[in-house]
């Protein structure tokens, strides 16, 4: 087990290094003169001011030196200051990361939590009308964009329940009920594709497990169908499920950025889009890096959990 953890940790370090290089280069390869855009198009933008701004941002140095300075500061938690507000970048991110995290976790719990019982029922009712209805619903859930579903739910809520608070964000500590009420619709919009995808995966894995010899042995011993389904088949079906949950988390982080705009949630989505529009280099780099690293770390944790669920993977590594 220790060898497996060390190997995966080394892989994680290599991946994080690659991400830092990609994020750094991606920002600098954006077309256009970022400094001129940041200063704006007015008569006060002189070549001297542009040169001074380049020097302040370190953009006048060789590319390799820029990367080394940025990486060395980032490893200490220093991502610089926001060009427009003058506040440390990490303070800007910390002020708006919680709504995104809460929305992501709420959506993940809703989608993944419902996917297990729905997938088990689809496997139990395989070939029947209920299974057909659920499968058609799952396919529909995969094809509906989250932002479109969010807009439809907003229109329906405004028409049928005008008093229902569905826009904006209230911290949980200030108003727990109001917080959950405002996150309900965006969480459903994000959770539906997750539920559709994972439930189909659970159904397939359950059907595969139900055809194994140990299931026939369990039934021959007189175990009830519910015990066979949930105690024996489900445990093996959870192995691909756990892996997919990690991938879905990355999807949620990306989808939350768009859905936040629909529901006026002041999270990382608004911060990233605003920083990109303003060419706020330090803020763009830091926010994209935080989201990407979060996705990688979640998948690393899922990989460790995968090894705990299936001991064969530990022996193989």
TrEMBL record:
Chief place of localization: membrane
Membrane topology: Multi-pass membrane protein
Gene3D superfamilies the record matches: MetI-like
Keyword flag Transport: yes
Matches recorded under InterPro entries: BPD_transp_1_N, MetI-like, MetI-like_sf
Keywords: Cell membrane, Membrane, Transmembrane, Transmembrane helix, Transport
Family annotation (PROSITE patterns): ABC_TM1
Localization of this protein: Cell membrane
Protein name, as recorded: Glutathione ABC transporter permease
Organism expressing this protein natively: Bosea thiooxidans
């Amino acid at each position: 087990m220790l060898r497996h953890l060390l190997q995966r940790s080394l892989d994680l370090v290599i991946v994080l290094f690659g991400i830092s290089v990609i994020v750094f280069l991606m920002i600098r390869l954006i077309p256009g003169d970022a400094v001129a855009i940041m200063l704006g198009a007015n008569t006060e933008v002189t070549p001297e001011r542009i040169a001074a701004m380049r020097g302040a941002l370190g953009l006048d140095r060789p590319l390799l030196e820029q990367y080394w300075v940025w990486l060395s500061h980032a490893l200490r938690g220093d991502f610089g200051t926001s060009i427009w507000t003058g506040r440390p970048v990490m303070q800007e991110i910390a002020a708006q990361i919680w709504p995104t995290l809460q929305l992501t976790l709420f959506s993940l719990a809703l989608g993944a939590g419902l996917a297990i019982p729905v997938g088990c029922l689809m496997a139990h009712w395989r070939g029947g009308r209920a299974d057909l209805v659920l499968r058609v619903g799952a396919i529909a859930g995969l094809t509906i964009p989250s932002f479109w579903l969010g807009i439809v739910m907003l229109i329906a809520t405004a028409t049928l329940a005008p008093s229902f608070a569905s826009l904006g964000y209230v911290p949980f500590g200030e108003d727990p009920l109001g917080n959950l009420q405002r996150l309900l619709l965006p969480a459903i919009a994000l959770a539906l594709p997750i539920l559709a995808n994972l439930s189909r995966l659970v159904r397939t894995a359950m059907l595969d497990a139900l055809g194994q010899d140990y299931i026939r042995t369990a039934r021959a011993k007189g175990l009830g169908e519910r015990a066979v389904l949930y105690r024996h088949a489900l445990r093996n079906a959870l192995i691909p499920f756990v892996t997919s949950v990690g991938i879905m988390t990355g999807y949620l982080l990306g989808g939350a950025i768009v859905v936040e705009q629909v529901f006026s949630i002041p999270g990382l989505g608004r911060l990233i889009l605003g920083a990109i529009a303003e060419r706020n280099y330090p803020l763009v780099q830091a926010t994209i890096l935080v989201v990407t690293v979060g996705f990688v770390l979640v998948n690393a944790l899922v990989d460790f959990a995968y090894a705990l669920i299936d001991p064969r993977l530990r022996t193989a590594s």
